[in-house]
Amino acid sequence: MKVAVAGCCHGALDKMYETLELLQRRHNVRPDLLLCCGDFQAVRNEADLRCMAVPAKYRHMQTFYRYYSGEKKAPVLTVFIGGNHEASNHLQELPYGGWVAPNIYYLGYAGVVRFRGVRIGGISGIFKSHDYRKGHFECPPYNQQTIRSAYHVRNIEVFKLKQLKRPMDIFMSHDWPRSIYHYGNKKQLLKMKSFFRQEVESNTLGNPAASELLQHLKPTYWFSAHLHVKFAAFMQHETSSKEELPKATKFLALDKCLPHRDFLQIIEVEHDPNAGDSLEYDAEWIAVLKATNSLVNVTQSTWNMPEKNGLHAKWDYSATDEAIKEVLEELNHNLTIPCNFTLTAACYDPSKPQKNMQPVHTINPQTTEFCAQFGLTDINDRIQQAKEEDSGRGECEEEEEEEMDSTGSAEDPSEYNTDNSGLSCINPDEIMLDEEGGDEDLSTCSVDPSPDHPPEFSTSFSDIRIMPDSMAVSSDDAMDSNNEDLEKSSGSKQGEEKSSTERPLKRIGGDENGNSGIKKIKRRNQAIYAAEEEDK
């Protein structure tokens, strides 16, 4: 089975699908599945734009709304996770996953599905330690804090994934698992992105929770995005016993969706030839959701997941064979995910722009149906109930958030030694929330629809890399190499980076409130601000 994998697409769905069609025309290669590793930007209308944690100048309608409205349909089944630049109000409607448009499926805060017998899992968002132990309490309309915390990974999602015992074929995360760079060509990585050096050398770059999942799940493939650079690694896992067969993970981080970048990867994955072509539930994952349902938290209160430390009566929530069998019987052994997509918001109309449209908290019928079928808690319904029971809750939250704003965190220190899954230094290819654009512009949006303002690029085949039998990652690739061809390749890519001068920086910088003290930064100022960060 051919699987196409994309990094941050930033709403450029037309670009992705046009590239896949070009692949078919030129090489007669048609992927059976497309995976996207976050920053998908499923923006339906102007209200959704306000729920994206980016400065107003980056809020463009792009082309997802055409697929949401039915004007277009994804030519290939697309499965994606959330990143840190999303229409959070839209994705929040589907905490357990669901269809955001026909043939486009979101995995939820965390999720596992199957396609043609291939098991695919993922976790959405990025890691920030000060929100990690909180519940999913956010709901639109967001404020300056919750518009960011809404996409932060929570410990309950990691805990659920750690209950899985059966083999995982593919796993996706938006930010990289911490330490993965030690299993790839660090020399080449730092040559392309020299500003990663401090975090790489101190082993603080990446998501520590994702690193734990990598060690636990040991998937055959792990795909990430976020840092806007292509990087491959090969990780050989340790075995717990002599009887256990050795396992290895082929890791690939993908670049963002831009012309002349390798933002798409094609891999061949073994599949079940007798399986159908429908996306399916994973029975073990459903059983884990049922087992952990009592742990659902929709408050800002911080809490730890159950551990075998003498403080919890139960700490193992993994699915038994009997529990999995019960799930199969509930579904009459038909695991097909129903195609029950429903419009839950007005779709953008280029002829009738509504710049003052406000986001509202919506309960999606897909989630209602899913929760009713499996006896799960609808997180959004629980939040709604809590708001109705306490009409003064909003004022209390504002007071708590003001305290957090002044102290940096209103909780005990995290179990991890840093709250940064990305970079404390400046990444010129990330979207930056600065003082001018990140906070006070939440009430504004800049609508730049594709029909009136088409993207300034043409599809080129240089955007695709085909890897027919397996990813070209081996133990040799996982070591720093002095190969002259590699040096030339790295140099050319670095030159490519330098050719795009004067572009605004794209990076989440500073603290969670966007108070980095950095205003408009251009690429030419990178060295200045990198030095300033080191001084701090």
UniProtKB/TrEMBL annotation:
All residue ranges annotated as the Lariat debranching enzyme C-terminal domain in the record: 235-380
GO BP: mRNA splicing, via spliceosome
Polar residues bias: start-end ranges: 415-424
Keywords, alphabetical: Hydrolase, Iron, Manganese, Metal-binding, mRNA processing, Nucleus, Zinc
GO molecular function, one term: RNA lariat debranching enzyme activity
Feature: compositional bias, Basic and acidic residues: 385-395, 485-510
Pfam family, one: Metallophos
InterPro entries reported for this sequence: Calcineurin-like_PHP, DBR1_C, Dbr1_N, Metallo-depent_PP-like
Gene Ontology annotations for the cellular component aspect, listed alphabetically: nucleus
Lineage top rank: taxon: Eukaryota
SMART domains: DBR1
Required co-factors: Fe(2+); Zn(2+); Mn(2+)
Keyword Kinase: no
Biased composition (Acidic residues): 396-405, 431-442
Region (Disordered): 385-536
Subcellular location: Nucleus
Family: Belongs to the lariat debranching enzyme family.
Name the record gives this protein: DBR1 enzyme
Species per Swiss-Prot/TrEMBL record: Piprites chloris (Wing-barred manakin)
Lineage: Eukaryota, Metazoa, Chordata, Craniata, Vertebrata
